Fold each of these.
Amino acid sequence: GKGHSHWSYEDLKHWSTDYSDCGGTKQSPINVDTAQATFSPDLRPIQLSGYSLPANKQLKLKNNGHTVVLELPESLALTGGYAQQYRAVQLHLHWGSPLGPGSEHTINGRRFPAEIHVVHYNTKYDSFTEAMVHPDGLAVLGAFLEVGHGENQYYHEILKHLFEIQEVGQETLVPGFNIAGLLPANLKLYFHYNGSLTTPPCYQTVKWTIFNQTMLLSHNQMSMLVSSLRTDDDKLLQSNYRPVQNLHGRRVLASFQ
Ligand SMILES: NS(=O)(=O)c1c(F)c(F)c(SCCc2ccc(C(=O)O)cc2)c(F)c1NC1CCCCCCC1
Ligand SMILES: [Zn+2]
């Protein structure tokens, strides 16, 4: 990868000195004020294709010091809900600690326990690195994770490997599974806005989709997520979320009323 960036969630102030876009006016994450969201009936249901992977397709799972990343094959494609076709790059998670929740986006000021991001790039560009510098270059699907009663079998496919990658830089291979199971069954109800990567370089090139339906994990699964990984100073990797950013006049669209 790009090697370990020296930024951290502790010194957010320096992000914009080292990465100018981080001080821009279309930054993410944001708080979604549902009363201010504009119902947009032409927002189509999100459609996923190729998300169901056979077990013999091995995927790389890595602790990169800031999150756990599952690399995804480009065969996973977003075909509905966006004007252009996007293909998957990777998915990763944001979480809190035993002291509090760690989603990046908030809804009416409410922070959820955790949040998944599935990162895609616009296939009109030759590569992800080319796409990520263009305003329509990236599409990230986000969903909130909450604690429910039963075990979530899809999240188990990732969480059961966390103990193998406790240290920064460690990676392991995960058998393929139905990646769509990590996202809500109802892909019609979502918020949509133009924003950025929530980590340096903070490029303002992301069309965000935040689903209204949340994902339920067991209490044990959520505590595995918040207490398995370490950072490069051997502390627990926790609360890896950026504070919400100012909308600066941006509108948030809703696919539902
Ligand atoms: N919410 S988000 O999508 O902005 C996001 C984060 F908030 C993230 F925190 C991250 S992880 C931090 C960036 C990073 C660091 C090291 C390595 C490596 O060693 O391979 C890779 C990446 C992270 F990877 C991503 N997504 C990345 C954005 C960073 C650069 C391009 C990689 C794909 C999308
Ligand atoms: Zn993210």
Amino acid sequence: MAAGVYNQAIGAFQSHSLVNNFNHQQKFNNIGRLVVTKDFISSNCLSRKNFSVIQCIASQTSEVDTASSSSRSKTSARDTHTKSNEAALILVRHGESLWNEKNLFTGCVDVPLSKKGIDEAIEAGKRISSIPVDLIFTSALIRAQMTAMLAMTQHRRRKVPIIVHNESEQAREWSQIFGEDTRKHSIPVITAWQLNERMYGGLQGLNKLQTAERYGKEKVHEWRRSYSIPPPNGESLEMCAERAVAYFRDQIEPQLLSGKNIMISAHGNSLRSIIMYLDKLTSQEVISLELSTGIPMLYIFKEGRFIRRGSPIGPTEAGVYAYTRRLALYRQRLDDVLQ
Ligand SMILES: O=C(O)[C@@H](CO)OP(=O)(O)O
């Protein structure tokens, strides 16, 4: 059965032009390359031995999710090997916020989603509902957290996303989960200020149109989209990247390397800085990179490389499952159990 889904997916993929969510002109290098070099492993205190231990754990955990006990024995060594060195990475900018709705600069002001943003988050969840998610990262801001939680209400695996509280020893202790089965059916959600939207300084709360009328369209576009020019008393994209990309490399990449499927729910600019890193965009190219609210983007992390696959259109889009055998197996498993 799984082979059927996989072959069907390969066929669809070959005749399927993937819809990219990036609404800008330049041609993207379709294969973002992250070469996992010896120093990457050592700099992440992953000795070769630890690295292989993590790989081994990952292949076992991923097996739990993509094969029933009966088919587990049929999982070939190749599949197990394939599973251990590939993972899905979903990036999603939060749904429309109440200040997006009013066209106000938001930055690090902690505003919630609008009604439209809630609908966008649910729609995003439908699009990724057959893609595995083992771990979720969000910013510390409610609009990103709402988006992640609402999206996961649509996931076919029905695991419960649970925000991890480790801001103090007591928080850790009081939020413990007991019961192996309960733990297995939950997804840790890690909130990180490093993934927050860029801090927009003196523009936060100002209307974008009025600001452009006051300072000039070019100047405001430069503040909003250039790489190194910050808004007044705010962060440039470069400064935002210094925290967001550093966090991605230090905290998220090791999880991908261990075979964990990750979703990141964050913001227009913190995600632009991460995509700039994943797709090796220049500071010129990133100027035209715009992200729509609530549109998930799928990357496949395989053999140390990030391969961008555009935005899944729907939960059964065959093309999405052509990328790796693991995604096809996972979706087939869901189909088998949920039929
Ligand atoms: O105001 C903001 O925080 C950001 C994202 O909404 O705006 P812009 O897209 O202009 O960077």
Amino acid sequence: MAKPGTEHGPDALREGGLIKKLMGLGLDVHDYGDVGTPSHEDDHHFDLPVKNPKHVATASENIAADVYNVIKSGRTCLALGGDHSMAIGSIFGHSLAEPEHVVVWVDAHADINTPLTSSSGNMHGMPLSFLVKELQPYISKLPGFEFIKPCLSAKNIAYIGLRDVDPGERYIIEKLGIQSFSMSEVDRHGIKDVVEKAMHYLDPEGVKPIHLSFDIDALDPSLAPSTGTPVPGGLSIREGNYICEELAATGRLTCVDIAEVNPSLGNERDNLITVNSALSIITHCFGGRRQG
Ligand SMILES: CN[C@](CCCC[B-](O)(O)O)(CCN1CCCCC1)C(=O)O
Ligand SMILES: [Mn+2]
Ligand SMILES: [Mn+2]
Ligand SMILES: [Mn+2]
């Protein structure tokens, strides 16, 4: 991961009262615990500048298995990160259970660099490239990722909140025609129109299961300071809550990722602000409504 500390994200959310808040919504909550992610000493890939590939591969396979089991048991899965590379496993696991699902990716970043377009080598900037069928001819096969079968088409993805996109990602988004509502579209049309347009594009009949992959850095850094790649000019908590309320209201929200909460960044107050923003996002995905 780009910056150590995201491994403590789930516990920070638990300590912030996550389980109690969800139970307070009348939900039958089961905490499946942490996914096993053994680290690998010799974890580098000789001819590619990809960091921790074996670690990410092992974690992804474990996450996929756990997400699949949770969804197959009839529950809605809440996957807590952790680095956004977690979405490799969570989306793949979701697709094994619900092959028809669509993805709403809420993030300051597109996270669709291939190992060759990435300038950082950090896998949190690459998760979608491992999952999109149209990109497979361009993806270097990394050891440990053999289990992944690309499970998304470009038309199954919509971005909300983009404001820091690398040149290679912009090319991919435009070449594949991925639906992208950057912060410019949010400002131009308003969040209501953006969510309506995104859902009409992804699922005009209103029948498909939804995967929401929410990177906490989609929110403005004033709301989520404890995160690894903050970018000014993000979503307000009202906009973030609105997205979640609307997706929850479909009744088809089947898997939610909350990524990039990093309690080792910033001070105590920053941690509290970030955790509270993440808890607000989560509760509005699971039935919490501002109108009560
Ligand atoms: C925009 N792409 C970045 C950031 C990815 C953030 C991942 B997320 O999960 O937090 O969304 C940044 C690449 N830049 C690094 C600094 C120099 C310019 C490129 C990358 O490392 O690929
Ligand atoms: Mn990260
Ligand atoms: Mn991300
Ligand atoms: Mn991000």
Amino acid sequence: MVAKVALLDIEGTVCPISFVKDVLFPYALEVLPDTLESEWDSAEFAQYRNAFPSEYAASQTAFVDHVKDLMSRDVKIAYLKSLQGYLWLRGYETGQLKAPLFPDVAPKFAMWGKEGVQIMIYSSGSVPAQKLLFRYTNGEPADLTPKITDYFDTVNAGPKQEASSYERIAAKYPEHPAADWLFLSDNVKEVEAAKKAGMQGCIVERPGNAELSDEARKEHAVIQSFEALPDL
Ligand SMILES: CSCCC(=O)C(=O)COP(=O)(O)O
Ligand SMILES: [Mg+2]
């Protein structure tokens, strides 16, 4: 496995799914009513409110009900992801939120840095939300953003289960053909899409992730820790 770019998913790959479901989502729902109360008509909040379908942007009650419904079904739609990033900002800045990265992640970032391997992120979370998560981690140093070259989400790259999204990402770096990229994710369909686009792919199996099928284990490389990755 020789790669020049490590392209990383977030949830279920660098941090537990439970951090997103049991910490980030409840935090967003907790601060939502007060945020709407104080910012509903503000110019800053307009970009988030106006991105919602008009029937939900019309009243605070409809807005909250829709956000709750989307989050209960873990719908990864761009306007929700964008709002979540905004709601999490204060939580990270005040120290209430800190991303619990798996212990093998930061050491691997350091190693890739030494080896000249570029680190890029591709998550359903919005780019601003991705930057917050890597800016405020439980690691030492806590801020891993200086090690990350670029960030991709469903807005600037497209859906994560489509090969065309990975082609778009690779095309931004003509010096790195698709074969130079290694995509790491907990999601089998995402890894299959990356491989279809010509990237290398590997499934990351973390505690709390969905069970992998025998077929997925046969078809793809599966690791439980970044330590298991050979030097790139
Ligand atoms: C980086 S924001 C928090 C995670 C999140 O909201 C999300 O949807 C993560 O999905 P992923 O594509 O990283 O599995
Ligand atoms: Mg994931």
